[in-house]
Fold:
Amino acid sequence: MIRYALICEHAHEFEGWFGSSGDFDDQRTRGLLECPLCASKAVSKQIMAPAISGTKRTVRDAGQPSQAMMLEAMGRIRKHVEENFDDVGDTFAKEARAMHEGKTEARGIYGQATPTEVKELVEDGVPVAPLPPEPPKKTQLN
Structure:
């Protein structure tokens, strides 16, 4: 596996793992690569130093996503779900199970479920995922 530091046309930095050096070029040519923050398909490799083992311990945070970047990505995901999916409130477990069993038409939904309901859905193979929390207000950040 090869890890590349990647950047999109909007200067969002992220990383990608590829099976070989040719896989990056192949996936970019086919339009399969996109920025996880803005969905831009204009993705390129960044210059990066090779990782060389040494005797001194060093702290590497240059390629780590910043807190602000992660909060922005989570906020975009939440906004997308709220704008494009149906809010079914506290009937989420019932609706998700009915769609999984083919009793109702499949569609994007979100809502609330108890921990017990979520556990039962997962055990029964119903695909569910938690909705990212609302991003904190700037006044709440350190």
